[in-house]
């Protein structure tokens, strides 16, 4: 892991998705740790941005409006970060709401399947763990731990709700071109999240994603090795991409991600992201993906 040499964290989650701290609590922790810039990048929602920005008002901390949008299908699981998106953009809000509705339906099906496997969970308990908002697999995993079915959330994933697990339910497909173009359409800067962590296919497809409008790659990430970092930096140089980074913080004591502000982020990264707003993707390349909602 790269230790922090500045005060920026561009990959942070809150209770608006699957984190355990509210947006205001995230801001307080960032201030305690002396951070200057964070990006709130909750999964498939911008619901926590206004609260975080309000909590940071009058402080030295800048909160970049962001989102992490999942793309899943035969190509595997990919995540894209959108920075400086307009939280009021209608088309993006509609797309994210559809994905949120799909998340709730998926969670209910997962809980029903776990019950069939002899591990009943209470829907209201899972909703409470999620703060009554977006519900994801981490909330189901914590409910499994609370009920004593498993000892850790990692065991919950590995044994039951990972992609090849007996209680796994796939998400509706949303292709990379659609995700990238939705971010660009909302005035944002699309960045491929943790590509080495996501697998070889994510790294190999960077040139393809550039043709759809990708503007950056999350190079600095807790699970990325020095070799991963060098390879991704090479791709950034080759395709003139912004090298970003972040902790993927989900909360104190949570196994996913790393402590807030603990991962190196290049000092000039934020300015490049700010300058990248309003970019428009190349045209003329057909999308090989379809969206099924």
Compact description:
The chain is α/β, with parallel strands linked by helices. Helices cover 40% and strands 14% of the residues. The protein has helices at residues 23-32, 49-56, 90-116, 123-129, 137-146, 153-161, 176-185, 195-198, 200-204, 206-212, 226-239, 269-275; strands at 8-12, 37-40, 62-73, 76-83, 189-192, 216-220, 242-245.
Structural class: alpha/beta
Distance from N terminus to C terminus (CA atoms, Å) equals 37 Å
**CATH architecture verdict of the largest domain:** Alpha-Beta Barrel
* Whole-number count of domains: 2
Number of helices: 12
Question: Count of DSSP E strands?
Answer: 7
Largest sheet: 7 strands, mixed
The coarse overall form would be globular
What does this structure look like?
Helix 1 runs parallel beside helix 2 and helix 4 crosses helix 5. Strands 1-2-3-4-5-6-7 form a seven-stranded mixed beta sheet. The longest helix has 27 residues, at 90-116. It is α/β, with parallel strands linked by helices and 293 residues long. The protein has two domains: 8-96 and 174-275, TIM Barrel; 105-161, DNA polymerase, domain 1. It has helices spanning 23-32, 49-56, 90-116, 123-129, 137-146, 153-161, 176-185, 195-198, 200-204, 206-212, 226-239, 269-275; strands spanning 8-12, 37-40, 62-73, 76-83, 189-192, 216-220, 242-245. The protein contains twelve helices and seven strands. The protein is 40% helix and 14% strand.
For the structure shown, list the relevant keywords:
seven-stranded mixed beta sheet; 2 domains; alpha/beta; DNA polymerase, domain 1; 12 helices; disordered C terminus; disordered N terminus; 40% helix; TIM Barrel; 293 residues
């Amino acid at each position: 892991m790269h230790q922090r040499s500045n005060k920026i964290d561009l990959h942070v989650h809150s209770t608006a998705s699957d984190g355990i701290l509210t947006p205001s609590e995230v801001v307080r922790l960032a201030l305690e740790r002396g951070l200057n810039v964070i990006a709130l990048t909750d999964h498939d929602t911008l619901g926590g941005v206004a609260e975080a920005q309000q909590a940071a008002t009058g402080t030295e901390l800048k909160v970049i409006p962001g989102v992490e949008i999942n793309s899943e299908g035969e190509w595997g699981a990919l995540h894209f970060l959108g920075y400086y998106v307009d939280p009021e953009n209608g088309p993006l809000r509609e797309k994210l709401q559809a994905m949120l509705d799909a998340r709730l339906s998926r969670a209910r099906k997962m809980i029903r399947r776990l019950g069939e496997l002899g591990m009943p969970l209470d829907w209201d308990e899972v909703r409470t763990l999620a703060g009554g908002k977006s519900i994801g697999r981490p909330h189901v995993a914590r409910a499994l731990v609370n009920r004593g079915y498993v000892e850790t959330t990692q065991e919950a994933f590995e044994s039951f709700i990972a992609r090849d697990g007996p209680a796994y339910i796939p998400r509706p497909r949303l292709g990379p071109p659609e995700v990238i173009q939705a971010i660009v359409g909302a005035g944002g800067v699309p960045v491929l999240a943790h590509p080495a962590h996501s697998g070889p296919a994510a790294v190999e497809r960077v040139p393809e994603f550039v043709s759809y409008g990708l503007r950056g790659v999350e190079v600095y990430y807790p699970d990325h090795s020095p070799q991963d970092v060098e390879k991704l930096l090479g791709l950034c140089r080759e395709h003139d991409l912004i090298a970003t980074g972040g902790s993927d913080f989900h909360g104190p004591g949570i196994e996913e991600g790393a402590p807030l502000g603990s991962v190196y982020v290049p000092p000039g990264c934020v300015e490049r992201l700010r300058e990248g707003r309003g970019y428009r993707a190349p045209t003329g390349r057909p999308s090989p993906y379809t969206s099924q909602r």
